[in-house]
Amino acid sequence: MDQRCAQLLNQIMSACSPVKISELADAFNISSRTIRYDLDKIDDFLKDNGLPQLMRKPGSGIEYSPSYYQRLKILGLLESIGSYNYVLTPEERKKLILTELFQAKDFITIEDMSNLLSVSRGTVVNDLKEVRKWLAKHELKLKSAPRYGIKIVGSEKDLRKAVVFLLSENIELEKALNLIKGPINRKINVVTDRQLKKLFQDLEISPIEEVICLAEKQLKTTFTDSAYSGLVIHLALAIKRIQLGKNIVMPHDELSKLKLTKEFAVASSMAAELEERYKINIPTAEIGYITIHLLGGKVTESDIFSNQDWIRLQILTDELIKSIGRKLNVNFMSDRELYSGLLRHLEPTVYRLKHGLPLKNPILKEIKNNYSGIFELVKGSLKPLEDYVGTKIPDEEIGFITIHIGAAIERNKMAKNNIYKAVVVCGTGLGTAKLLSSRIVNRFPNIKILATLASRQIKDFINNKELDLIISTVPTDAQDIPQVIVNPLLVEEDVGKILKFLSTNRPKNPDYGQVQTITNNLLKIIEKYCDIKNRDQLIREISMLLNHANFEDSKGVAQPVLKDLLTEKTIKLKVRASNWEEAIRIGGELLVENDFVEQRYVDAMIKNVKEMGPYIVIAPGVAIPHARPEDGVKQACMSLITLEKPVNFGNKNNDPTYIVICLGAQNNHSHLKAISELMQILDNNELVLKIIGSSNKKDLLETLYDFNDVNGNSKEEKNETWSSSMRYRHGE
Fold first, then answer.
1. Contact of 215 with 266, CB cutoff 8 Å
2. Domains in the chain, CATH or no CATH each
3. Per-residue pLDDT tens over the stretch 567-614
4. Active-site residue, from 138, 355, 626, 671
5. What is the pTM of this model?
6. 530 CB contacts (<8 Å, ≥6 apart)?
7. Is 626 one of the catalytic residues?
8. For tag attachment on the chain, is the N or C end more exposed, with fewer CB atoms within 10 Å?
9. DSSP tag of 381
10. pLDDT digits (tens, 9 = 90+) for 146-158
């Protein structure tokens, strides 16, 4: 805030009606752009002093009508104006230069930058060296033109990614969104304030939030708070860029694949609403870009079958869990929460990685500090995922996967003895919430976690529920229930906060004696008929069994294993097929003949390949066609055919195909054990060659079963596999 800004503010206050920027430019003999810079400085000055900001009325001008006492305060401040002079650091100047360049429609002169920053031309020239370095890291360049100035050049997609990255360097997206939605009468950060003002000035945010909430309903999903905020900001940025005449360009083949997803249909309806509200035209490529963000947004819940490549995602999840489990010498195979949570996480992760969408992990440093060993172990286990997405996995993504593994390890240590009923709220994501929940229950066995939620879900959840406590990483609107705000990793200070609550509050409806009561009753029965060698160990194991009861109940029916699904009835060897479609139809008919699927399921498998491409050819010579459960699956099933002559699906890496395995799944998990065993077989090249060359179904099945018995499972996995198989065969 300098003397000219003081004079400018005084003139605006003295005016009887809104003053146009062009009028102010003429009065002060400077450019309209410089006037806008000065107005931004005035707004910063007013905000820092707890005063209302200028009113900018498009088409009318600038107006300011403070109250009598506010006017007196302003006049007093203006008298000592020389004391208000914020000096920007070189790093801050770099960020402001970038922000100005990003929102500019065309060239900007060095003189303009000098006026903006209140520094010399030489200082700006030096700052531009760092600007160029920063842009190069984001695949962008700075173009200079004599007499015109400078501007950023590069792809629109890279430019938008860079803008979000620049913004997230200073502030989390959730906080940025709150600042954009409404002014806050406190100083956050000079640079951040100016960035947000430049990038999102005069843009109403509520219509964007409305279309995202509608999208959640249509997709039957819920975005995490961070994903929700990120999506709002991405859409807001897209609208501003479209208003500047800057549109996304997307390759035709990429756009064609996106059009086949239900997210594209939802994105289209979102675009129609936004077009109407903001009076803009949203091209098809922009709709594709919105689709990518819907697919890449972290969610608290999702339907994995909405992804056409769900079988590959399940295989990747299974491989990752087994690999890490082997390295840690921990059996994760019975941890349904780990599998489902990691699967839900990997689905949007794959889209983010394939399309280069940035993801900010606000607790990455803490994860590395607290789980350094697990982080490095996870990092070394991600090659299958890297091969699938075609790129290295950044540390931000590795950090979130580490959280899921860390939560699973914590669950292995837990001993539940619940008294207080609580919910955990976390804006970062489901994995973080699960980890926080696990650490809470581990430190406080008398706390029962009823749910992990996003902050926007809390009001709907707490209706008519007996709830003692909300443990949250962010403040919530639930005013009738006590809240404890904690760090996502539950540091010692947070433990003290929870202890304080427990020592001063009694639960509304305690159930703490349930496990102990059942344990004691079981002990009495056991003592009648047995001599107990180690009473304490027996109590611990009974307690562990009871604490896993909910997990066992959640499984529903038993999981069939490979020998349950793959029988002589569902195998054909040395089949003649003229093309891939006929091969799928032959394999599918085996499932129809055994009343495992409806005829329409076979058509759905073929349709998937035609629409989505040969992604089902998952390994050299091996294809696994599949469709969604609702396409006609009656029970979990599998068929296998080998081809006398191979066929081509169009997969240049894995064709020609000799083995076609048709898979039918009823739900998210019923087929997992069988798939896991199958993948172990397909990982063995020698065994794959035996399958291709086999001419006797009985001999082939014996070979497969023997391989699984010898190589497939650990002792614990074998026991679980046997019990699952027996339950499945008896229809339990």
1. yes
2. 3-83 (1.10.10.10), 306-407 (1.10.1790.10), 414-512 (3.40.50.2300), 515-554 (no CATH), 562-729 (3.40.930.10)
3. 899 999 999 999 999 999 999 999 999 999 999 999 999 988 887 777
4. 626
5. 0.55
6. none
7. yes
8. C
9. T
10. 888 899 999 888 8
